[in-house]
Design brief:
This protein has about 80 residues and is mainly alpha-helical. It has helices at about 10-15, 20-35, 55-65, 70-80. It folds into two domains: about 1-40, no CATH class; about 50-80, no CATH class.
Length: about 80
């Protein structure tokens, strides 16, 4: 509705039963202007994906392959001590 020329106050006034806060509608309108969608996030927002780096994957794979006789729990506890 922001793109249709309605301001934030007009949107809140058009839906009084929703109990939307002015700041929330403003943030959603800014997100739509920035990304083109209310549900899509900006690039590089959110949790970093450093846990799935190639070196970490190889390290975990090597640890599990070398510890075939142990339980998964003991392998995980051992990996924390690396």
């Amino acid at each position: 509705m922001c793109k249709q020329g309605y301001g934030v106050k007009a949107i809140v006034a058009a839906y009084p039963l929703k109990n939307w806060k002015l700041s929330t509608v403003k943030k959603i309108c800014q997100r739509v202007d920035a990304t083109g969608s209310a549900t899509e996030r900006k690039a590089d927002s959110g949790r970093p994906k450093s846990a799935r780096s190639v070196t970490n994957i190889e390290c975990v794979e090597e640890l599990f392959c070398s510890q075939e006789g142990q339980s998964v729990r003991s392998c995980i506890l051992q990996s924390y001590h690396l």
